[in-house]
Specification:
The chain is of the alpha+beta class and 173 residues long. The chain has one domain. The chain contains 5 helices and 6 strands. A hairpin with a 2-residue loop joins strand 3 and strand 4. Helix 2 runs antiparallel to helix 3. The longest helix is centred in the N-terminal third of the chain and has 31 residues.
Length: 173
C-alpha cells in the first residue's frame, strides 16, 4: 500500500503530461504554419488584446467598449489567418476592421454604404475591401490599406479613364 501511495502522484503527473502534451504541440504547430511576419502580426494582436483586458480590469473602459474592441481584434485575427492560408505568403497588408457605424473613421463624412461594398473593390484609391467578418455577434468590414505603389497605380488608372486617346475629355461649364 505504501508503494502505491508513493507512485500515485508520479502516475497522475505522467498522465497529466500525456493528456496536455498534444494540446501544447498543436498550439505551437498552429503558429509554426506561418512565417515570421504573420506570426509577428498575430503576436501584435495578442498584445492588443492584453492591453484591452488590462484596461477593462482596471475599469478604465466600459464593458461595451471592451467587447467591441475584443471582437474587432478577433475579426482582424480571422482575416490575417485567412489571408496567410489563402496566399501561402508571409505578407499581410495593413488591415483595418470597422463596424458599419465606424465607416466615417476611415472615409470621412462621405463614407460608402456598407451594403454597396463588393469584395476586392478599391475605395478612394486608399483601401481595398476584403470581406465582412462576424465576430462575437458583430459585423466588421475589413479593409486592406493599399501600399504607395498600389495607390499610385490606382490614381493612374483613374486618370487614364478620364482621358480619351491621350487627350483630356472636354468638360461642360
Amino acid at each position: 500500500m505504501v508503494t502505491l501511495k508513493g507512485r500515485l502522484p508520479a502516475l497522475l503527473l505522467a498522465l497529466l503530461i500525456v493528456i496536455l502534451l498534444p494540446c501544447v504541440c498543436a498550439a505551437q504547430r498552429s503558429d509554426e504554419e506561418f512565417g515570421p511576419v504573420v506570426r509577428a502580426y498575430l503576436g501584435y494582436l495578442k498584445n492588443e488584446q492584453e492591453v484591452v483586458d488590462d484596461r477593462v480590469s482596471r475599469r478604465e473602459v466600459s464593458p461595451t467598449y471592451y467587447r467591441h474592441n475584443s471582437n474587432r481584434i478577433k475579426a482582424l485575427r480571422q482575416m490575417a489567418i485567412r489571408l496567410a492560408r489563402e496566399t501561402h505568403n508571409d505578407y499581410l497588408p495593413e488591415l483595418e476592421a470597422v463596424s458599419a457605424g465606424e465607416m466615417g473613421l476611415l472615409f470621412g463624412p462621405q463614407a460608402p454604404a456598407p451594403v454597396s461594398l463588393k469584395e476586392g473593390e478599391v475605395i478612394r484609391n486608399t483601401f481595398r475591401f476584403l470581406s465582412v467578418v462576424r465576430s462575437g455577434g458583430e459585423m466588421f468590414y475589413v479593409f486592406a490599406r493599399l501600399d504607395p505603389y498600389e495607390q499610385a497605380e490606382q490614381s493612374e488608372k483613374a486618370l487614364s479613364t478620364k482621358t480619351e486617346g491621350g487627350r483630356p475629355r472636354k468638360t461642360q461649364p
